[in-house]
Amino acid sequence: MLITGIKSRPVYDELTPMTSGLGHVTAAQGSGGKPLVRLLGEMNPDQLAATTVLYSTESFTGQNYLADIQKFKVCGLIVFPANADAVRGLDAFLATAKMGTRLYISGSEGFIGTSMQVATSYGMNRDEVLREHAGSFSRRVWCAHCSHYSENVTRRVFACPGCELNLIVRDHYSGRLAAFQGVKADSEVPGELPENEELDT
């Protein structure tokens, strides 16, 4: 569980097998492979046989658990080179998923957030989804001026790649946007920027 002083930040779960599931799908990226391997190790053979694993090898911390994941006899393993591809893969999987499917998500906050947007679009509720944070604490930031998303932001002030404005990252996480919000940093006094500190992630 990730605990910070940011009240709007999601409180995450610990991945454990959901016995109520008739089928299981996991979506993980990079360091999220560690809790995924633990989850698979806790599943019984019947649960493993009903589990499809979606794993992205893109990692912000250089962690890759693919070799460990491949040791489990799951129903299917689909590997993606990028996190965005894995999220699209989750979308395609859920489009044909049956009632009783349970979803497990692990990885960075941005990956969990975008995966949850997909799950929510299919009407999955909190009883059907578990999320565990792993790896980087960098932030996904949504620009309030051009709606561009920036991944892996670690500094309080940065230039938005979408509109090139200097943004200050607020300590407010939007579940709807699956991101922290960034607003123009020098809106009160043009050219005067706040201290560019490392974010308390």
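The above is record 1. Record 2 follows with the same two-line structure.
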Amino acid sequence: MLPTSNVELNKLRSLIEDKIQHDYVDEIIQKPAIDETKLVLLYTIMKQSNLPQSTKERYILSTIFVQLALDIHEIVPIKNDRNESSISQKKRQLMVLAGDYYSGLFYSLLSETEDFEVIHILATAIKEINEYKMRFYYNEITSVDEAIDLLMKIESLLISRILKEVQVLPELALIEHIISLIILLREKHLLISNDSSSVFTNLVTLGGSRQDLPTKLESIIEEKIKSIEKYINDIPIQYAELKNDLKKIVGDIIENNTSIAKEG
């Protein structure tokens, strides 16, 4: 399991949940889940920084607020049906407003300390992520590998940009590989359970075969794990604690996915 019992992590979760809690919104729509892996990765790497604790905390919270905004806007139903029920319409509108509110939280938090540089970094990342999503969902891709690469950028760009600002991790590509491993394991599980898969959808569009995809994904996953192990082993000795923490996080990601696959 990821280190959910860590006191500092629990404090961060509580701060996030307190900020996004709203009785009326929670009653009408489902509160978005905090991405635990991204929170743990941010915390694990950010704690190595020499920045003041309050700054590290502010950067982690801001990044998670932006992620929550992106996540909830991602699932807003796209429709403009005259026959849409008032409840459905209200839910859709509230999801948009909730996303805007979460986005406003990051801006408010950083503007309190006039950290306009980080506001710009996160805002630029949001713009680029939305551009990648447009390419992905409007099928401006030519291969499954490109589809996976786009998903990796969509999911990892936010964390990569904030960690680049902090300048702790020697090689940010490691974060991209860890995030892409999570995506690949998720897509493989969706395929095996005959559920909807983003990569599969794009494969069909490209004229590929669903039968071949699990094998292809398995091969890519094996290569990805080897790359991650190499990146972690190459982390300089002064980051020994970070090295061990990242090994555990990656081990837990693989173990959790294996458990889910067995249960499925």
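The chain has a mean pLDDT of 84.
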